[in-house]
Structure prediction request, 117 residues.
Amino acid sequence: MQNGGAVRLVPSKADYAAWRGASRLQDAERTVTVNRPASDVFDYLADGTRNREWRTGVLEIERSSAADGQGATYRQVLACPGGRRIDGDYGVTVFDPPRRLNFMSLPGPRARSACSS
Prediction:
């Protein structure tokens, strides 16, 4: 990708299924054109502590592992309609600078599947 290239944010179904043991998944995709070198964009997106700057609904975010890149985990709190807060922890499953970054929600005691009670 050169300057001004498109950045696609797409979770990998195979990585997600392997991590969660799930077979039916929802996709999320967004394409944005950024007039910066691919390595700058990748580094920005890969720094999960910056999620509040580009992801709406992220109220709190912090790294919860010592790992960088693949295997890094983050603790985040997300906003739901009506002001309800939910945990939305996630981990980096693929880290291939500057081309591919995959992450997915982590199962566990902090994880919740929906904003409704």
Summary: The longest strand covers residues 73-79. Residues 14 and 71 are 16 Å apart (CA to CA). The chain has a mean pLDDT of 78. Residues 6-105 form a domain with the Alpha-D-Glucose-1,6-Bisphosphate; Chain A, domain 4 fold (CATH 3.30.530.20).
